[in-house]
Amino acid sequence: MPKPWYRTHPTTWHLEMDHFINPFIPASFLAHFPTPISHFLGYRSPASQRAKKPALGNLAIILFAFVGVFVTITIIGAVGEHYEGFRGGGVPVVVGSFGAAAVLDFYAIESPLSQPRNAIGGQLLSSIVGISIAKLLALSPHFESIRWVGASLACACATAVMALTGTVHPPAGATALMAVLDDQVQALGWFLIAPVMLGCAIMMCCALVVNNLQRRFPIYWWSPKPTGEFWTGGKGEGEEKEVAGLEKGASSGGKESEETRTGSSSELRLARGTRSDETLRDVDLEAQSCGARSESGDDDDVLDCTVLIMAFFTLPPKQSKALPIVNPETGQDTLPLPTTHFKHAAPNPQTKKSAKTQATLAQGLWFPPPPAETPPAFDADEQYARGFDIYAPTFVPAALKQINEYAGTVIDTFPKTHIDYLQYISGILPTSLLPALPRPQFADHLSSEAPHLSPQCYEKYFRSLIEVELAYQRKENASYSLYGHTGILRFNDPNEPTVTITVPGLRENTPNVQVDDEVQLRQLRFDYGGHFESSFFPWTGYIYNARVSAVVRATETLVLRVAGITYHTAEVVTPTMIPPWPTEFVVKFNIQFFVPMVRYTPMMDVLPHITQSLDLAEQVLKNDFDALDSFIDEVTHNGSARPKADELSTTNVYWKQSMLFPTEADCNSQTHVVNWLEHYDSTRFDESLNYEQRIAVDSVLCQNYGTMPYLISGPPGTGKTKTMIEIALQLVRNVPNCAHILVCAPSEPAADTLADRLSKSMSRNELLRLNRPTRDSREVLSNLLPYCYIQNDVFALPPFAQLMSYRIIVTSCRDASMLMYARLTNSDLFTVSSTLHQQIHPTLPPPSKARLHWGALLIDEAAQAMEPEALIPLHVVSPPLKGPEPLLNPLVIMAGDEQQLNPRTSCPSTPLQESLFARLFKRPVYANHPLARRLAKDAQPPKQQYQLHPDLLPILRPPFTNLIRNYRSHPAILAMPSKLFYFDTLVAEADRHERNRLKSWPGWRGRRWPILYHDNPSPDDLEAPSPESPSSTATTGGWFNVGEAHLACQYALSLFRSGLVKQSEICIMSPFKAQVRLTRSLIRSEQYGMMWEVNVGPTEAFQGLEHGVVILCVTRSRKRFVERDRGLGWGILPGGVRQESQAGGGIRNQLNVALTRAKFGLIILGSREVMMGDEEQDDDSPQGGETGPEKEDGRHAEKDKGPPTSKTRGEKGTEWAQIIAFCERNGCVADSNQVSRWSTSAQNNSQNENGEGQLTKWETDVLLTGRGRKHSMSSGVSGSGASSTGSGSVSATMEWSDVDEF
């Protein structure tokens, strides 16, 4: 424990009276005064800080100071001249020190020396001290000879008294001096206090008026630190009003409970530290620790062994969820001390201490970091065997954690940019004509039981899922909290101070922070020695809700705008510091990341619109809607009826239901054979489209498939975005009544890609890239900026007329909410226009057909969008519920790949991970169609899929297209992903010269195909907290494998030195972020040639990208942790289809992403023992994580009774077992001990005893043809590479070239 003050060195003693006085000083009540009064008393509400005012120049400040000083001294002099009591008694009202005081009070008004407490209290105390010393010395007969000593003593004593009481005011020193030296003043005695106080009062009144005209005075009345905590139960000055303003939603980011903002006391969080060195930042490791905590949660049960381990990292002991081992004799928890797992052992305490004592001891210990080239790690096996929870978050000191629970003065930083939608709407549309917004079903109306997905429970279903997701998001963000974290406070702009912090994991979007998101800061107090002040007032009492100004992911840096923080509230200046002060300070904060509600609010706001349409469709089906009954009656009696503009069109009513729950009734039938390529004669913008891409384009343009979404299933490298671009251009150029379309994507980069490709065929007057105002313009491609609308240096909505003139608007699904909130949907626009037409032309009949503004919606990468997210643009283009049938039913076209990454969620298993695109493909109208991918896999060549025999007619027209031609990968790389995820339907069409670039690299083995598996048994390790990053709380999968990282770097170096590839064409990926950081640091070290251009990152970061060579690090090498990884969604070791979530199957999809990024080289590193897994029989499970088609009410139907829809019949093993079997039977393995099992008999019998010999369709075509038999007769193939004989080399060369000929 810390030493008592009397046992420390006197130079470290510190006494601050405010620690004892402030709790009893009443809290400020200025906030309750009327604004005109409180303004001139120096109070500024958070709302008054919305408008940024330019900083005053020094000329204006000098002018105000001149006027203030002149007026003040004049008034004081006039009072002394005309007040008989002063003039008659010879009392000097204008004391000499008032001149210096006026300079401070009117020029340096932000200085703590000029605040009311100092200006008045300093003068009062100095007067008392000066008079006391003068009267004491006057008792001496030698007073005149020692008066000069008394003056020195009076000034010194006044200085000491002011310093101890916090009332330092330099002019007051002159007052004490004059009380002794000046005969006239000395003769006044105690009566001197009256003119001094009167002068101070007059000066203060004048200062309140003059200084608050354009500036603020005082900054505080008593102290910048919280006051009144004794009376308000712990709440500081001004807290009640600030908290109330916060709860009323002052922030535009949404409302959150106090528990959300301050954190939950039951959660253990620890901040991650900052590394100043650039190389160390790249390998910044996430803190993981092993400790011991009793299940009862008693702090005194923390064990000595934990103190030893955590003291090594300068952290208090971490707590674990392990069960205690109780001594039956003593009833106390006991556990043998574990052997140290570090290169330097920590000292062993001799005696048992309490948990609090141990925590204090651990904070005071410091040991140098071990001189290791790899991150410190725990022996996970031994800790696991001892019963420790190695996944538990690291212990957070209670003193730091409790600060986030304290109430304080909340200061909000308001968003820089904001769209006033009401003002925008009122300027363009008659708001009285807009349809009323439907009422949402709030949480209190929802059933406690989670409903299943159906048209009747649609809003309840997704609203409950979003609420659950928000809860998980808050919990996840809490795990990223930083404690005692260093930040750089800058006052470069007085009106907008900034704080710069480094956030570990920001590069990998953990946490996912964007510009203008809210981050909460609580500044901590540290003494002059840099030690945390854990007693009395450990923080400043201000809660700053800052806003993100810039995000630099490359260096994991955030720049925050912090309103309300000043030199004084930040306590970075002392009374002895003279202005001008420095503009940069190093401070420490507790940092919490809020959930940005702006990302979820549009998804919840669109649900009532969807529910309104689905409910109306349900009522129409039951004949319960009055408008439809009257319409039917009119037809019955009159024989005909003409629908009115305000009546219902069944097409409009059913449109959203057909888009969300399509059935066979929504699909058109085909009754005769059609030549698809000649049916639609149109000039194509891209003549390089292949057969399937042209089929998709023509199907959309013909609009003969029905009223339902048209889905384009595009596996990696098949050109789905290229197809969407052609469809968009054809729609606006060649389809009547489709003059304007909306093109969306789930992410901003994907939307930028769409806009970039469209810009090559569209002018700036035809194409708009719509961005939300908070997006940083530096993120947008420079060639796209002319296609964006920018106002006042921020993105904005264009004027109404300009917006309506664009032919194509490209935006993200989230930013499509800008059109929804601006009431620019088809429904709103048609309602206003038709009502105006009827009011202007009341005698004209209403139009029989409705002309809608938005003719189509295209969503690219739709499989990555949560279904509520896709509903936003869907609502924008949906037709109005009331009105005639439209000239053109809005088309909805989606392209994506449900076998790649799902929508990212914080909840590890939630139906939100299943996109609308993936769910639609499970509907029977898609899944059971004869041309579905799982049913048409044997229809090769591909054209046979669309060349129907007349005997099959009539047949439903397929509302989808399966793209099958891959233009990225070598056929050997594509073979296993095609078999595992796409029912063996993919065809390799990559450029032959490009895919053969590495055929001369000597590292290939066996058939010398550009795929290699390397069995790596090196152990994985769990990160331990770093001494430089001692405050990390996140449990984010800090596993790494040193041997595998070195092996990956060796392969990358070998490939680069071969001269066949560039550094930028090589990527190394791993599902574990700790492995990514370790590999990144190694590949950039001198040991491996400082290859900075090699791309190293997590697996999910490569979605949508491609690289020449991919080196895949599996990392995991211990079986015992695989199941926990799967439960947490870590790694790329799927546990078979049965173990995957119906909603997600995320690990399996990550594996697909990892395998399909490579163009001409794939190297897999991992432990064969772990990757082979349990080879269970899994015949009945559908492939690709599919769960079979849905029933029409949204529930899953019985599995199809036809051919197996999973892995090939009779096949066993996990995905990795099949991939390794593929490599082994073709000799593509680097370890000579893992010899290829492939032989001549394996060619003729495609299934061996273990089921691992099942050949892919591509292998069968290559090996069982004439060329394949020639391979089998050459015996130059082995598991370790080609034969050393001449014939073996020729055979290997022949095999590569034969594959290319195929």
TrEMBL record:
Segments forming domain DNA2/NAM7 helicase helicase: 689-781, 853-903
Domain DNA2/NAM7 helicase-like C-terminal, residue spans: 960-1168
Gene3D superfamilies: P-loop containing nucleotide triphosphate hydrolases
Biased composition (Low complexity): 1273-1294
Domain HPP transmembrane region: 57-218
UniProt KW keywords: ATP-binding, Helicase, Hydrolase, Membrane, Nucleotide-binding, Transmembrane, Transmembrane helix
Pfam families per the UniProt record, alphabetical: AAA_11, AAA_12, TM_HPP
UniProt GO molecular function: hydrolase activity
Residue segments, region Disordered: 231-277, 1174-1213, 1263-1302
Family matches, as InterPro entries: DNA2/NAM7-like, DNA2/NAM7-like_C, DNA2/NAM7_AAA_11, P-loop_NTPase, SF1_C_Upf1, TM_HPP
Regions of compositional bias (Basic and acidic residues) in chain numbering: 236-245, 1188-1213
Stretches that traverse the bilayer: 20-43, 55-79, 145-166, 187-210
Protein name in UniProt: P-loop containing nucleoside triphosphate hydrolase protein
Organism: Neurospora intermedia
